[in-house]
């Protein structure tokens, strides 16, 4: 049943085990608009935001199941990566929780998946999107990958691409979904809110947002075998513009790093994953600069 010319390709595809990987962030979840929602701690706003996040990722899991997925892995991808409430997660999903993880927001995608969903994603730093930032709102003013300004959607789609996994669905605010459509032609998107500002949004009714995600997720599973993984550039060059010069001084200490200007440091490697990991180390170094 592996021949493309046996006339049974469709049937063969349906007989194949279909595995969906889901990376779930919090800033693009419907109802989430403020740092208090995203800051892990005791606050009422955060407690509510993690419940919304769990319910919204459940909609994507339910859609994947409806679309025929046999195995679903959810990777908690925000902050401490201990937000999704396991006991409330859809029973079809396995959960990766906690941090640090070698592939961070994409941990698990290397284990053999047919497609990836990015749920609750936000737009990159400097865009008009809700809680816009790129990986670290405290340190990163701009990230470029081989000269292209990148957000987490593109950065993570390339990670998935390294393992042959196409991104099939992205959800978030309208800025995040526009960013996804630009980076990933043909990807399915669901916009759950429209930004009014960095800390304000007009939200779809929550049940309506989840119904749309469920429907799009089911349709996205049908793209397996048709959608192509996004292959990263080789060599890969990560260029980080930091928030202040002290951060760039720290980041510039890393062996192999290239100080581009007072605020900007770059790192290149033939291996995208190695360059990505170096960029994470650089972001961690940047955070060690004294605040001023
Ligand atoms: Zn994020």
Written description of the protein model:
With 292 residues, this protein is α/β, with parallel strands linked by helices. The protein has 2 domains: 17-130 and 157-221, Dipeptide transport protein (Rossmann fold), CATH 3.40.50; 236-286, Dipeptide transport protein (Gyrase A, domain 2, 2-Layer Sandwich). It has helices spanning 9-15, 35-38, 44-66, 152-162, 174-183, 206-221, 245-251, 272-286, and strands spanning 19-24, 71-76, 93-96, 115-121, 140-145, 148-149, 167-173, 188-197, 200-203, 236-242, 258-259, 264-269. Strands 3-2-1-4-7-8-9 form a 7-stranded mixed β-sheet, sandwiched between helices. The longest helix is centred in the first third of the chain and has 23 residues, at 44-66. The radius of gyration is 19 Å and the shape is globular. The N and C termini lie far apart (64 Å). The structure holds zinc ion. Zinc ion binds next to loops.
